[in-house]
């Protein structure tokens, strides 16, 4: 059963960019939330006009403070570098009972609390597969009661798997491995496709073979309860066979080390952005 408040909550977005558009699509499609429960403001009006055309009844607002005045849940969806100034202008407007969710990478909850004195705060990190309901969405909250947390889960559940994390470090790890991680997986898929194409397959065939291999492996892992990934790998690897030869080479070339370094570099960049955005 969905949260009883879900049908009456007013959900406001400050910033109408890519992520807001993806989230609005995700929360409106299952029809648990109606168009007229959604409120959006943006720095410039163009995206609001488009959103109103797409979702009749959606409420566009000229000023960010109107979103804070009117809504129960407020999603801060501008770029991290725009957030501190935009929020400082309206910081006195937030109310104790409101749920305020920041999507900004690199601004931690303590920093948000400095500019948002009232309200129940959360950070949320969706990745791009959320667009098709297959996202991993990290959630870190502060002073959030169970009811508030349940409400966030219910509203955004259609985007994919929502994971509550306990610390900023975990939030960072989830962002690197799942949000940036989506980009890392695409990087590998590109090499996969290139290799196949170089062997005479068309671009379309090579893309299909690549996508289906990643998808098939992922679905097999997802549907193999109680069997870990290493065991699934062993099942396709016979001693001194073809797969074993490839895997030995991957290990000699230290793919694991390369991946770990890449994850660490991404994590360091995230911390650097945090320092730059300190409020
Ligand atoms: N894209 C992703 O995959 C992803 C994933 C996870 C988290 N995020 C986070 O989500 C947030 C938004 O990212 P995005 O990709 O959606 O960015 P985006 O497409 O650039 O959208 C940002 C929007 O914020 C608006 N804006 C800027 N300053 C504003 C202000 N003072 N008041 C009202 N609106 C303002 C911009 O308006 P204009 O139209 O005038 O420029 C723009 O439409 C970021 O913090 C990002 O870190 C993104």
By oligomeric state, this entry counts as single chain
SSE series: EHEHEHEHEHEEHEHHHHH
Q: What CATH architecture of the largest domain do you see?
A: 3-Layer(aba) Sandwich
The first-to-last residue Cα distance is 40 Å
Report the top-level CATH class of the largest domain: Alpha Beta
Strand content: 5-15%
Q: Note poorly predicted spans.
A: none
Using the coordinates shown, work out and report the CATH topology of the largest domain: Rossmann fold
* Count of helix runs: 11
Bound molecules: NADP nicotinamide-adenine-dinucleotide phosphate
Write down the overall mean pLDDT: 94
Taken together, the total number of domains comes to 2
Strand order, main sheet: write it out. 3-2-1-4-5-6-7-8
Q: Write down the overall geometry.
A: elongated
Name of the CATH homologous superfamily of the largest domain = NAD(P)-binding Rossmann-like Domain
Number of strands: 8
The biggest beta sheet is recorded as: 8 strands, mixed
Fraction of residues in helices?
40-55%
